[in-house]
Amino acid sequence: MLADRRHQLILRALRADGPLSVVALAEKVGASQATIRRDLVQLEDEGLLKRVYGGAAPVTGEDDPFADVAGVHVEAKDALAVWCADLVRDGETVLLDIGTTAHRVARHLHGRSLTVITSNLAVYEELQDDKDVQLILLGGVVRRDYRSLVGFLTEDNLRQVHADRLFLGTSGVRPDGQVLDTTAVEVPVKRAMIAASAQVVLLADAAKFPGTGMARVCGPEELDVVVTNAPVDEKTGSRLREAGVEVVEV
């Protein structure tokens, strides 16, 4: 069995049954215990599970609420936001993802002749009184603690628009370049944003390599630029560049 298939089966078993021993995983997957142990080391390195005594446990939980992370890594987020704002040209249509880094990008777009589309309530509040910015708020179900709109209405709205650039957030980037999120309900919206955009710019501070997350948003081939505040590890950087992604350190 190919390693990728084993990894899928291991993660699926942990999500379904909770913590499992190496013996139990070997039986479920149909592989030797030695192979499972090696798989668990790799999957933990990629932030996809947590090893415990004798086995492994799933990575659970959601992103921290917006207010809890707004004051974390502020300088790094501001550096990314300034670079992203400088990338934008007047007259463009910009799509801003949820999260605190996208909110900081919005702070640097004041007074610009732009159209901004977002499901981020903090972005909406930041720009709502700016007469120069045409602001489009996507509909959907309100997640109050996360300051975002999600659901089929949000996805349907995104199918009706096109953006020149998307500034996409993430909770983690795997060494193979896969972009992850910890909250499954946000993933369909992120995918719809990618489909609606001509250019996808991923904002990922140093803590996002590998970061956390169990839900796959997209592969590296769907990204155009990755902006970070620290050197990307060699394996991840090589995979991104192989996929044609420009990696920018600010």
UniProtKB/TrEMBL annotation:
Gene3D superfamilies: Winged helix-like DNA-binding domain superfamily/Winged helix DNA-binding domain. CDD domains: HTH_ARSR. GO terms for molecular function: DNA binding. It comes from the Bacteria. Keywords: DNA-binding, Transcription, Transcription regulation. It holds the Pfam family DeoRC. Residues 1-89 form the HTH arsR-type domain. Residues 3-58 form the HTH deoR-type domain. InterPro entries: ArsR-like_HTH, AsnC-type_HTH_dom, Carb_Metab_HTH_regulators, DeoR-like_C, DeoR_HTH, HTH_ArsR_DNA-bd_dom, NagB/RpiA_transferase-like, Tscrpt_reg_HTH_DeoR_CS. SUPFAM superfamilies: NagB/RpiA/CoA transferase-like, Winged helix' DNA-binding domain. This is DeoR/GlpR family DNA-binding transcription regulator.
